[in-house]
Specification:
single chain, about 350 residues, alpha/beta, Rossmann fold, 4-stranded parallel sheet, 10 strands, globular, binds the ligand C=CC1=C(C)c2cc3[nH]c(cc4nc(cc5[nH]c(cc1n2)c(C)c5CCC(=O)O)C(CCC(=O)O)=C4C)c(C)c3C=C, binds fe (ii) ion, Ferrochelatase_N, Ferrochelatase_C
């Protein structure tokens, strides 16, 4: 009789085929359109901005605004911005996330199957969780690539994973990478990256700005830890570097009050305070993306120089640099303890 076997038993030949015995790692980032055109951006924004974790306004009020106004105006403007930063390989966010996954696959070896997904757009979380499970991953560590926890980002990745397994009969064991905003390995990786960036400049900045993605002020009042996590990252990094950092929050969306101070306000006010040379970096983004390549590196420089600033430098995110992969490998091996 032909048989297939697992570690303990021999199964009859007519038993359904099952793959088993593997461990998976799924990196997840926010998501990005498939192409820098209005249609693709509209599809992506519709999914993203319909997430109740992202816009916490009752659907009955929000959906008419989203569908009637925002999806008719923003996609064209955003597509223009995306086209300024799009690379031959695709959206910077997707390219860096893919490169991080490939680098981690090399570090972790054949014992771990590494894949990556996007919370909104492609490749979807469900498609990648299913792929890992079908390939025999009985254990999966999901790593939302957000150092600072927020409901809009980290918790939303958790939701997508729970939704994916809700449709499965046989669940893999799941673990989630916790926020790492105050982890020594993360602070050290940021310190090395920012110090290397500063050392490469032909000027001494009068101010160094740590720009985090913003959130509505109300989320802080409702108990979201994001603001505190950002403050702690900036404090620990400033202490490690022995230099003052100016914290700011970028990418305001909609009319509600967002966390302050706003990055654009800071950039516009510094020249008037005699601070005419700045360096800016984005410690909350694990990869460069629209918000860093266009909003900070392009528009941020314009805002600063129009306000009388002279020298401006944008220091890139950790991306798939060696320091970044060292840090992620440390965090991931720790969370996979007992599995590998
Ligand atoms: C790093 C953490 C992020 C938090 C927190 C976050 C909250 C948040 N974002 C929006 C609205 C938009 N964000 C957009 C882009 C975007 N946001 C993040 C990360 C966080 N967002 C990233 C990495 C990106 C870049 C995506 C890319 O493709 O490169 C956009 C879309 C771009 C645009 O049209 O300008 C919007 C809109 C809200 C409302 C929010 C918190 C409630
Ligand atoms: Fe965002
Ligand atoms: Fe933006």
């Amino acid at each position: 009789m032909t048989t297939i076997s697992d570690q303990t038993t021999t199964l009859p030949a007519d038993h359904p085929k099952v793959a088993f015995g593997k461990t998976g790692l799924l990196l997840v980032n926010l998501g990005t359109p498939d192409a820098p055109d209005t249609r693709s951006v509209r599809r992506y924004l519709k999914e993203f901005l319909s997430d109740r974790r992202v816009v916490e306004i009752p659907s009955i009020v929000w959906q008419p605004i989203l569908r009637g106004i925002i999806l008719n105006t923003r996609p064209r403007k955003s597509a223009e911005a995306y086209s300024l930063v799009w690379t031959e390989e695709g959206s910077p966010l997707a390219v860096h996330t893919r490169d991080q996954a490939h680098a981690l696959q090399k570090r972790l070896g054949e014992g771990v199957m590494v894949d990556w997904a996007m919370r909104y757009g492609n490749p979807s979380v469900a498609s990648r969780i299913n792929r890992l499970k079908d390939a025999g991953c009985e254990r999966i560590l999901v790593a939302p690539l957000y150092p600072q926890f927020s409901g809009a980002t980290t918790a939303s990745v958790h939701d997508a994973v729970f939704d994916a397994v809700a449709a499965m009969r046989w669940h893999p064991a799941l673990r989630f990478l916790p926020p790492y905003h105050d982890d020594d390995a993360y602070i050290a990786a940021l310190k090395d990256s920012v110090e290397a960036g500063l050392a490469s400049l032909d000027f001494e900045p009068d101010a160094i700005i740590a720009s985090f993605h913003g959130m509505p002020q109300r989320t802080l009042e409702l108990g979201d830890p994001y603001h505190c996590h950002c403050q702690k990252t900036a404090r620990l990094l400033s202490e490690a570097m022995g230099r003052e950092l100016t914290i700011a929050f970028q990418s305001r969306f909609g009319p509600a009050k967002w966390l302050e101070p706003a990055t654009d306000t800071i950039l516009e006010s510094l020249p008037g305070q005699g601070k005419k040379n700045v360096a800016i970096f984005a410690p909350g983004f694990s990869s460069d993306c629209l918000e860093t390549c266009e909003e900070l590196a392009i528009r941020g420089e314009e805002q600063f120089t129009e306000a009388g600033g002279e020298k401006f430098a944008y220091i890139p995110c950790l991306n798939a640099s060696e320091g970044s992969i060292n840090m992620l490998e440390t965090l991931i091996r720790r969370e996979m303890s007992g599995w590998i």
